[in-house]
Amino acid sequence: MTTTTDQVTTADPPGTGTSRSTPPRKKTSGGGGLGRYVLVRFLLIIPTVFILVTTVFVVMRSTGDPITAALGGRLRADQLAERIHEAGYDRPLVVQYLEYLGGIVRGDFGTTISDNRPVSEVLTTYGAATLELAVYALIIAFLVGVPLGLVAAHHRDRIPDAVLRIFAILCYATPVFFAGLLLKLVFSVGLGWFPVAGRASTGAELQMMALPDPSGFYVVDAIRTGDPAVLGDVLLHAVLPGVALGLLTAGVFLRLVRTNVIGTLATDYVDAARSRGVSEGRLVRTHAWRPALIPIITVMGMQIAMLLAGAVLTETTFEWKGLGFMLAQYLQARDFVAVQGIVVLLAVIVAVTNFLVDVLAALIDPRVRY
Amino acid sequence: MARRLSWGRLPVVHQLRQSVGLQRGMLVAGLVVTAIFLLTAIAAPWLAPYGFSQLRADGVLFGAQQPPSAEHLLGTTVGGYDVLSRVIWGARTAALVIVVAIAASIVVGVLLGLVSGYFGGWLDRVLVVVCDAIYAFPSLLLAILLAIVISGGQSDLWGGSLAAAFSITVVFIPQYFRVIRAETVRIKAEAFIDSARVIGTPHRRIMGRHVLRNATRTLPLIVTLNASEAILTLAGLGFLGFGIEPTAAAEWGYDLNKSLSDVTSGIWWTALFPGLAIVLAVLGITLVGESLNDLADPRLRSRRAAAVGAGEVAETSVVPGGALTAGPAGLGGLEGSGTLGDEGIEVRP
Hints:
Main location (chain A): membrane
Region (Disordered) (chain A): 1-30
Family (chain A): Belongs to the binding-protein-dependent transport system permease family.
Number of helices of chain A: 14
Oligomer: heterodimer
Transmembrane segments (chain A): 38-60, 133-154, 166-187, 234-254, 292-313, 336-364
Number of strands of chain A: 0
Structural class of chain A: mainly alpha
Subcellular location (chain A): Cell membrane
């Protein structure tokens, strides 16, 4: 399919179309194949990102220019026209598009209209918060999803399995914002165990702001302050958003582990172990679960997209000031320059994660490469 | 050639007969919940005690944030609407959006997939790359973008619902496209297609009669999974403020958004009931979809007592690893190796 990869021509896999008459080489253990795979896969990101950026641009611009959208009712027509001219939105769309692409390559996403900040600054300021939330959610998802999946597979088609599968579907069927609202109702308002919203209380935030060069990852910053009270405060704030978003993914992990462990339990080598008298519980614990984890890594790519979309909703529920929270704010303000920037960044993150996940899967499982 | 259509061959009925034990229980439970959801949607005007935008009865205002009482079984919202009525009417909005979104995405997705897979060439390449890009995009974000374009924000029942429905449509098209394209590529290589061409059958007829009819076996499964996703996406849009005006229609996500501030002050009824409605609707449809998926996969299907010992069976799950885990398959997706196994889904143990 791609012919641009001829620099790394070690061990052409059969059937890739290149019919050069190279002398047959001794097959080494497939290291070259991996290099080629990674390169091809990497080159495939470029069209994906390009299409995403173009789609977002075209879609956003088909509604008109961002200035009219944001300030439409509030300025007189001549003032509006002047602002549009200043910002260059009256030029041909193709010129604007090329300029936008050029800006993105240089890391310039434009300036927000509602609060006049560089979009790149918004992205770096709030991106850390979203990543932090995503990490918490993944941790929760692993801690909940994998063990429960093993239990469900072990008790296949019996009561615990049924209960766990219903639980998994419930995790998936509950919108994150409703899960968040319920958690808030019970644990913040009802029991008062956790704070209602935000990433940290004001005192802790001030202490972290005083740090030289804060990273934006509150856990890291809290550890750097050296004050256990600050760290405790940050972690307390993280529990409910992390659980709300994590449960969504936990359901998917549970199903996946269950399905794959059931699949592995039917394989010959497990049968062999079984015939040697290994107990069923031990089969799950020592033989079947490791190969069953491989698909989880592949699915992680998909999960990142789902996590980011979920983060938008979770952040709004908990006033967690990350990209999703800002996205909702800018959507309300009809500030489409900012929306465009955030959406493009999220899309690129998804594309890059998918790439990393594919490489990881290829490293683990040689059959993936070709 | 008129083949006798028997009930047992219909998609869901067939699986219902095939299922046993726990799996049948899940399928039946899903079907019941889904039926309740649909009946509520149809009968909303008769079931709901008040209109979805009704603020007063007999000239007396309902009052805002009233706790559940005899007049208002589930209380009233911050805007002074009756919660129970809005929950019931919300089913109608959700059902409307699902039906429109899925019908539209099936038509477009199947048509594109059929043409793309059948003729191949550069059009095929372009469509595959574009669909993969859309598929990799977080669906809620895509829906937000499209909602901005289509409605510019909020509007009336039909405008708002259609905007939401078409936003969701675009998100779903790649799924139908991928499945139908993969099937088409597979079926195209079969001998009976060659015979049809030899006797001079036009392409349109081959596509419609020979390919399409053999390529639709996985559609019921994807439809159910998409239906539940459509409800969640609609609710997400509403929650972020892209819903439908409360005076135009009742929408669960919008009501949940309005209940955000109530929760902090301990008012639970405005959040709980619309949320439960979403969960139940999605749960019912997902249970049906899950069961269909498991029944299609011999490794996951519960075995009838007598028919154990199937040995090794090829994976025929529509999406390897389970239906909810569909993801862009990297190179596999681009090369059109397809997400489907080669074995027939109808394999019985």
